[in-house]
Amino acid sequence: MMRSLTILGATGSIGASTLDLVRRNRDAFRVVALTGHSNVAALAELAREFDAEVAVIGDEALLPDLREALAGSGVEAAGGASALVEAGHRPADITVAAIVGCAGLAPTMAAIEQGRTVALANKESLVSAGEVMTRAVARHGTTLLPIDSEHNAIFQCLSGNNPADVRWITLTASGGPFRDWAADRLPGATPAEAVRHPNWSMGAKISVDSATMMNKGLEFIEAFHLFPVGVERLRILVHPQSIVHSMVEYRDGSTLAQLGPSDMRVPIASALAWPARMETPCDPLDLAEIGELTFRRPDEVRFPATRLAREAVIAGGGAAAVLNAANEIAVAAFLSGQIGFTKIVQCCEDVLACGLPTPPQNLDEVIAVDREARIRAREAMEPVR
Ligand code: NAD
Ligand code: MG
Fold it and tell me: What are the record keywords, sorted (predicted)?
């Protein structure tokens, strides 16, 4: 059966992995909308290759270029923030939400409002919007399938079980490129070192988040919203090989885990085909070759990000949106050489310490909290004069 598919963030790493699967299963999917932020050439090429109905460029100033690049293709061109939201609204059986950051929130919410299936990679949108998003999912009867490998693993391990029987949900973490670095070396870590992830090839922002462990912090908040077993039943375990993608322990002592290669096409395929399965070109799992799977407790002294995330969940309201916004600003500042590595999480802690906003009740209020926290983050990073 042919299913229609939209990819918000088609030009990124998750977009590329998704389209790789579509390319290998051309009979199974028809592409509705593809979006990108600023890479007109890449977006136009993908839209032509997959014969999309519409291609949307986030940066509206680039719309004339996109029109030109798509001339004669039959693909409609659109641009700007409202066009991204319209792309989310355009009917599609599955929408893959793969824009990075809170920039993906409004388009993802638009896709949720369709009441069909949203495959979520854009964790920042759920972290920021929290209950506003989960309420919309419930109200519209939407199927929300996690693509984030840990959450996809947990989703699979929970399937067929009663959430009331869960003793622990354990999110595994690779620990990132600096997991074995001494604390005094971390302030000198460079952007080039931070984006060189040992196991996964990903966009720059999530790679830095993995290095600070803020990725695991955001995933902790993401898990809190996706799997309502209570914050006290969620924990994090460092697993350097990234083979066990997460696990669920039940009250009878059974632990179910999902294992697989460190290849995002596995969780993406699981979401695209759910509840069936589809073929992927990923290497089969060769545990004899891997030899050892090791685990250790996270070190929240060297990597305080997961502590901040847990505190934000417990504080509730807009705390997670503030944390996410501050982190986005700080990561961008780190990548452009304005602040040191350890200042990223320090900035988040400083902004959270400024006080918490009134809990946002709808999308506009979440966006307002996000915007305000960004301003405070920029202030927090300014050098003391
Ligand atoms: P990426 O940087 O490779 O791609 C991001 C996409 O978002 C691109 O298409 C880009 O054009 C678009 N984009 C960026 N800023 C935008 C803006 N302001 N407006 C509109 N579009 C914008 O990132 P990625 O690694 O593909 O990650 C995408 C999302 O998936 C992130 O939320 C990330 O946390 C999550 N995720 C990624 C991986 C991975 O392996 N890459 C794994 C799990 C979760
Ligand atoms: Mg993940």
Answer: Isomerase, Isoprene biosynthesis, Magnesium, Manganese, Metal-binding, NADP, Oxidoreductase
